[in-house]
Amino acid sequence: MIRETALEMGVATITMTSVAARLGVNHATLYRYVSSRDDLVKHALDLALERSEYPAAGNDWREFLYDTAIATQRMCENHPGVATELAGGHSRPTCCSVAPK
């Protein structure tokens, strides 16, 4: 429920306090579940990726790249702030945490 709320509110502009207020709890309560705002954003980005449908790799790499770009665009349109975080934010989805910053 926490990551859904963060994703719905827009991950680029959320604060721990704003998410807690939307959930009707004290912001300190969130720290039982996430360690920081960046951690909360990572979980929200993971949820956005989980909810997106990406193409399977095929023989035509150009078609695969095009379809992947379209899927990414849809994800960003459906979830405010995701594009901002992926493009220049300080958080990366958990699935991408092995990539150097």
Commentary on this structure:
By secondary structure, the chain is mostly helical. Helices cover 58% and strands 0% of the residues. The protein is built from six helices and no strands. Helix 1 (2-9) crosses helix 2 (16-23) and helix 1 packs across helix 4. The radius of gyration is 15 Å and the shape is elongated. Mean pLDDT is 87; it is low at 97-101.
Overview features:
disordered C terminus, mainly alpha, 101 residues, single chain, elongated
* Morphology call: elongated
**SS strand fraction:** under 5%
Measured between the Cα atoms of the first and last residue, the distance is: 28 Å
Radius of gyration: 15 Å
Major beta sheet, specifics? none
Beta strands, count: 0
Secondary structure: helix percent: 55-70%
Task: Tell me briefly what this model is.
It contains six helices and no strands. Helix 1 packs across helix 2.
Strand-helix topology:
Elements (H helix, E strand, L loop, with lengths): L1 H8 L6 H8 L3 H4 L6 H14 L10 H18 L3 H7 L13
Helix pairs in contact: 1-2, 1-4
